[in-house]
Amino acid sequence: MKVLALSLALAACVPAQPPGDTASAEDACGATRVAGFVGRTRSDALVEEVARVSGARRVRWIGPGDVVTMDYSAERLNVRLDGQDRITGFNCG
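Structure (tokenized):
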């Protein structure tokens, strides 16, 4: 019973998708379209290709220790990098 109550409480914390929004709120930035780029090393050509393939309005490249703002933009693609400038993942925000 406690597990059910906890599950319901946590579900209430998940933001609802806006009415009429046909695109997935989790992929408004095209993160799934560029998932195949994980492991590639950042270059000028790759920066342009990720922006083109994702269709994101804005792309933010984030390396270890980079300071980023906490403002959320569903159309912005965040590209996570490791210490060798290799892509480790993507998310919208």
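The longest helix spans residues 44-54. The chain is about 25% helix and 20% strand.
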